[in-house]
From TrEMBL:
Pfam families: DUF420. This is DUF420 domain-containing protein. The lineage of its organism: Bacteria, Pseudomonadati, Bacteroidota, Cytophagia, Cytophagales. It comes from Spirosoma rhododendri. The chain crosses the membrane at residues 12-33, 45-68, 80-100, 115-135, 155-174. Keywords: Membrane, Transmembrane, Transmembrane helix.
Length: 180
């Protein structure tokens, strides 16, 4: 691929940085809205969809790692773009759920309570952090900067995998307390 001009690189970096801040801030603001929108009871199923999306994303991430280790770049690219697409769908679904439904409180007691909150907090914090790394990794791959892509992925992959897996674990831990 052709080398990017410095001005193009600056624009891409600026966009990645803006999105990496804007996405978590927008999600936080949307989650803070107390007045819920009524779009019907179908939105109560979005938590289940999100768990499926996170599960498939984790599998795709592992497949992407497998394919690149097998030097199957085409399969790697396809699985990683599918994981990125699912991540985008997850974000929309997550926001839509929280715009339309009250948050669910965790009702577990004893040792499981601090475990749940540790997983939840680490999941949330790392889901904010991973946006920047994933956007960079995707940008570097699509722009043919594979050395930089590999460096970004060293951070993006384990964080993204952790966020995907803990999203499913947290879902199963809180699932008994959903009111729908």
């Amino acid at each position: 691929m052709e080398t990017l001009q410095p001005i193009q690189e600056q624009k891409a970096n600026r966009l990645i940085n803006v999105l990496s801040i804007a996405i978590p801030v927008a999600v936080a603001i949307l989650l803070g809205i107390r007045q819920k929108v009524d779009l019907g009871s179908w939105t109560t199923y979005l938590t289940h969809l999100n768990a499926v999306i996170n599960s498939i994303t984790a599998i795709l991430l592992l497949l992407g790692l497998y394919f690149i280790r097998q030097n199957n770049v085409v399969a790697h690219r396809r699985t990683m773009l599918a994981a990125f697409t699912l991540g985008s769908i997850f974000l929309v679904s997550y926001v839509l759920y929280h715009l339309t439904n009250e948050s669910t409180s965790f009702g577990g007691q004893g040792w499981v309570r601090p475990v749940y909150y540790f997983l939840l907090v680490s999941h949330i914090v790392l889901s904010v952090v991973v946006v920047w790394f994933v956007l960079r990794a995707v940008y570097y791959a699509l722009s043919g900067q594979f050395g930089r892509h590999v460096k970004a992925v060293k951070w993006a992959f384990p964080i993204w995998l952790y966020v995907s897996i803990t999203g499913v674990v947290v879902y199963f831990m809180i699932k008994p307390y959903y009111i729908h």
